[in-house]
């Protein structure tokens, strides 16, 4: 299979330039990236279907890339664009939506699939335009953009599909009979196939996104693309082997298999050695002074004893290098999947169990002390905080006495409750990982972080609070949560400034948090 079809004809309603042509952080664009990925896999017959601003795509025409126009792009949807290549396609092909950003491995995996048709799925993204999927026994049985029609969420379609020529011909026959020019190709595909003809590959924890509007594009360039660039950066295998050599000191690790699996603060790698799988954590740029590794080691082990943290097999408190049990076939929760009812119940119960335990963590996490410490690090590396921070800083520290008036209670807390720190194994058990910032703190700070980082809906905020407090929510709980969200936004904004001064790039992440803190200060009349 050396044929691919890229659909990029759609009219944009909030941009004069098609989003597939808008620049990414590295100077390329979605179309260029997809074409480069295909050429790298030796595709030599690439049909790029265009419509809106068609002339702008002509620069990509080459011996391997043919530009095909859908002159009816304004009056048709994706099936109408796919139909224009029917006379040109003579073999099985990859069908790729031009507004999708994804990891290279998606194309490679689909190419290597032995199935004639093969769909690609990942976890629900929460982007608002998802094509949800139901599956059974390895096949996709239903898709819908209406979540009310899905009984059991299995994932979301990526917009990248391997199609057999025979299936495509059946789709074309149905298209000729259709009186709906706005039908999308996915629904035509489902109408001409049985479930057994719709196998899929699941890509868990994939870094990806699609761009349907300006906010999608801003998220792509300021977050998604940066995360993928960090993940795809080459790493020094020799250094990793040296770490592993220290861990497995009496064994030859030269043939170990190493695969990078992401990480924001740190670099994480899946390690396969002697038929066993592990996660190797190597601290990233600017970690020195930010994390007290001896506290992390002690607290992480206490988390293991409670059964909420996967087993840790090696921890070097000097370097921060850690080797932990790898959870096979695990799902990393995200801002969408954490808000499913079953997951909401589980993660809330984990926090109740942690907070109400008799465990005494090795240290206290005081957000005001942490802010001062990060400010010292910021000064040390010669970085500057965002505009107007002196005024904001005063309002931030005025919150300390306000919190004391409302009442603070210290309990064991995780203090870094991004949804990605919850991982779910294939049996449904959820673990809480990465205890770098753990310590004794007010549990409302943990709840504030979880609700903030995943952008919980108001309904889900109420669900969590009712479950956490068994229906008896104390007065001022939501006010305290808002205060802690302000403090955490300000703290992680400084964290970002320090990390970027040491070479990382987090796009608008730090500024977004800083300005959100200011907006919330205004809401509670503190600035």
Automatic annotation (TrEMBL):
It comes from the Bacteria. It holds the Pfam family Choline_kinase. Gene3D superfamilies: 3.90.1200.10, Phosphorylase Kinase, domain 1, Spore Coat Polysaccharide Biosynthesis Protein SpsA, Chain A. Signal peptide: none annotated. SUPFAM superfamilies: Nucleotide-diphospho-sugar transferases, Protein kinase-like (PK-like). InterPro entries: CcrZ_PhaseVar_Mediator (IPR052077), Kinase-like_dom_sf (IPR011009), Nucleotide-diphossugar_trans (IPR029044). One of its GO terms (molecular function) is kinase activity. This is Choline kinase. It comes from Bacteroides acidifaciens.
